[in-house]
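This section describes the prediction task in plain terms. A model, or a person checking by hand, is given the sequence of a single protein chain and must write out its three-dimensional structure as a string of C-alpha cells. No templates, partner chains or ligands are provided. The sample shown here is typical of the held-out split.
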Amino acid sequence: MINTWHIFRKEMRNYFNSPIAYVFLAMFLLIVGFFFFIAIVNYQRMVQYASMQFGVNQNFNSVERIITPFFNLMSFLLIFMIPVVTMRLFSEEKKLGTIELLFTYPLTEGSMVLGKFLAASVILSIIYLFSFSYIIIYNNFFEPAWGVVASGYLGLLLIGVAFLAFGMWVSSLFADQVTSALFTVGGLLIFWIIGSGAVDVTGTAADVMQQISIVEHFQNFSRGIIDSHDLVYFVCFIGTFIFLTIQGLEVRKWKG
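The expected answer:
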C-alpha cells in the first residue's frame, strides 16, 4: 500500500506539472458547456413556442431533453479525451527507459498499476466535479432531478474508469504515446458502436454484441436507472484490463 501511495503521488505531480490535466479539463468543460447551453436555449424556445400555440402538447420533460443528453455527450467525449490521460502512463516510461528502473524497486507490478490507475481516476473525478457546475445552472432554471443526476454521475464514473483501465492496458503495450492514444481511441470506439451492429444479426451473435457494447450498459444510468447487470459489466470490464496490464508487466519484467 505504501508503494502504491508513492506511485500515486509521483503520477499526480506529473499531471499537474505538465499542461495535460489543465488542457484536458478546459477542452472537456468548454465542449460540454457549449452543447449544454444550446440544449437549454433550444428547450426554452420549444416550450415558449408551444405555449403560444393552441392545442400543442406542452408536457415537455427537461430531464430527457437536457440532462440525459448531457450525460450521453460527456460519456462519448471521453472516448477521445481519456487517451490523452492514459497514453503516457506506461508508454512514456518505456520510451524514457524508466520502466526498467521501476522494476528494480521493491514494489510489485500490482502496486505500480494501481498507483497509476488511481492517479488517473482522481484526475477524471476532478473534471466531473467541475462539470457539476452545469447541473447547478440547470437547477436554477428547472426542477431539480437529483435521482437522475446521481445515477448519471455514477454511470460516468464507471464508464470513465473503464476507459482508463482499457487505455492503461494499451499504454503498457506500446512505447510510443501517439500510437497508444490512437489504438485506445480505436478500441473504445469498437466497444461503443458494436451494439449498433446487433440490428443486422440475429440470435446469439446479436445478444453477445449487445452485452459487449459499453454504451448499452451506460444508457440506463443516464436515464436514472441503476441495474445490477450493468454494475457487474463495468466491474468485470475494469478488473479484466487491470489484470491484463499487471500480467503484461510481469511478463516484460521476467523477459527483461
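For orientation: The chain has a mean pLDDT of 85.
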